[in-house]
Amino acid sequence: MWYFLNVIFNILNKKIYNYFPYPYFVSVIHLLVGVVYCLISWVVGLPKRAPIDSTLLKLLIPVAFCHALGHVTSNVSFAAVAVSFTHTIKALEPFFNAAASQFILGQSIPITLWLSLAPVVIGVSIASLTELSFNWTGFISAMISNISFTYRSIYSKKAMTDMDSTNVYAYISIIALLFCIPPAVIVEGPQLLKFGFNDAIAKVGLTKFVSDLFWVGMFYHLYNQLATNTLERVAPLTHAVGNVLKRVFVIGFSIIVFGNKISTQTGIGTCIAIAGVALYSFIKAKMEEEKRRTKVA
């Protein structure tokens, strides 16, 4: 379901940018729809709202900031380049996550796992050099998103010690929305009021415009909620790898839906990156199996 909802979100999101290229505002809408969903869920008691104190709030603020920054920069990248290219760049997330896990959390990452991530870096580099839709705005934004979401995963894991993942993500969404509104108003506000909204409505009509924004926000919230529920059950690094495998589906479907043309080298680079993730998954699974056997013994 995490993969399925994410594919739908990415396709609908890119379709919106094709006629409404305002990623800061769209980012706000994504979060706003999710916040309304969370508030209604709390009112009906599904789930019951968990109380929040100042200590937990201090933990969630940096998580929400990283979530907001990663979300906005992802959308800036989606608006600037092909969906498939953004997700190829974001395949580097396990590399950033491994570095953060070792140097920030103090977890020991074996050399074999580091080596398995090398093909991911090499593959992404090859794909970037030959990507037909390449531009620096899309590339740099996707890289910033990688770093932001890495820290979000790590800090989210710490915050989940006192609260279930559904409530954690609800609070993160509310705080992240507050972070996203000011830059949207400052960066895109004047353009939206002058011609942004009018141009979009002229192209697709008011009903479709509003409907698209609502559904893209709903799919965004639901796929992130499931991703957070998954993170509650696994380590941040493992979650990052699952995130990369998800990108295989997104890349494939985006190429089919939008008819994106990719060079042979881009295709090869993407395959190398995915192969690196598969190698990592195999090594990681083998290590975890050995740990279980040792405990049993």
Automatic annotation (TrEMBL):
Name of the featured protein: Triose phosphate/phosphate translocator, chloroplastic isoform X2
Domain Sugar phosphate transporter, first and last residues per copy: 1-281
Membrane topology of this protein: Multi-pass membrane protein
The encoding gene: LOC111433911
Organism whose genome encodes this protein: Cucurbita moschata
Any Pfam family matching the protein: TPT
InterPro entries: EmrE-like, Sugar_P_trans_dom, Tpt_PEP_transl, TPT_transporter
Keywords: Chloroplast, Membrane, Plastid, Transit peptide, Transmembrane, Transmembrane helix, Transport
The UniProt record lists the keyword ATP-binding: no
Superkingdom: Eukaryota
GO cellular component terms attached to this protein's record: chloroplast membrane
Residue ranges of the TM segments: 22-44, 56-72, 111-130, 136-155, 167-186, 206-223, 244-260, 266-283
Localization per record: Plastid, Chloroplast membrane
Record-level Gene Ontology MF annotations: organophosphate ester transmembrane transporter activity; phosphoglycerate transmembrane transporter activity
Organism taxonomic ancestry: Eukaryota, Viridiplantae, Streptophyta, Embryophyta, Tracheophyta
Record's keyword annotation contains DNA-binding: no
